[in-house]
Amino acid sequence: MIIILKKKIDISQLRDKLLVFFYFKYLTILVRFIYTLINCGFMKLTSKGRYAVMALVDLARFDNINPVSLRDISLRQGISLDYLEQIFSKLRKKEIVQSVRGTQGGYVLNKKAKEIKLTNIFDAVDEKVKTVQCKKESKKGCNGKLTKCLTHNLWDELENHINNFFKEKSLEDLVKDNSERRL
After folding, report:
1. How far is the C-alpha of 94 from the C-alpha of 152, rounded, in Å?
2. What CATH number did the domain enclosing 81 receive?
3. Deepest in the core among 17, 50, 52, 77, taking most CB within 10 A?
């Protein structure tokens, strides 16, 4: 086949066409890999993690005055009260919040907002931000083969950047960002 192609087009054109072919083949594999990760639930946060952060930012805005009820957070943020109760149960177990009983009861932060990092919140509600299916220490690849995929290091590096970002961001940062935007 290559001999037939050589006769119809010169070598430089053949090389260019093969490069384009392999470039698109590689790009197709990469896009399919990303699409598979997104469909498998990777590279995105679940509603549990997002709602936990939203609820705690709301709590951080109001808890200087009095304890904040979950009903108030539910109404302001549009999150189901039952779902908030499940989330706050986990947050209480990890000592991020504490409950105050009584008619003026509700929840307060257990620490200052600047001491609570987003990573702490995600850990408390069992949220994992992963961009690859395999374990880092595993020699087996995420595609089920003996070797790791060609782009494994790329996704692993992205996961590190995302998790480092969450380690640096605190509730106080989010409260400040929100109040600055409202001005």
Report:
1. 32
2. 1.10.10.10
3. 52
- Are residues 52 and 35 both part of a single domain? no
Q: One-letter amino acid identity for 178? A: N
Q: pLDDT tens-digit profile of 77-113?
A: 999 999 999 999 999 999 999 999 988 889 999 999 9
Structure tokens at 101: 């009983």
Predicted confidence at residue 3, as pLDDT, reads: 53
Q: Note the pTM of the prediction, 2 decimals.
A: 0.68
CA distance 97 to 68: 11
Return the sign of the alpha-carbon dihedral for residues 80, 82, 84, 90. Answer: negative
pLDDT at 170 over 60: yes
Please say if the pLDDT value at position 123 is more than 60. Answer: yes
Domain span holding position 127 = 47-182
Domain count, the chain: 2
Burial class (CB in 10 A: 0-12, 13-18, 19+), 156: middle
Q: Is 98 strand, coil or helix?
A: strand
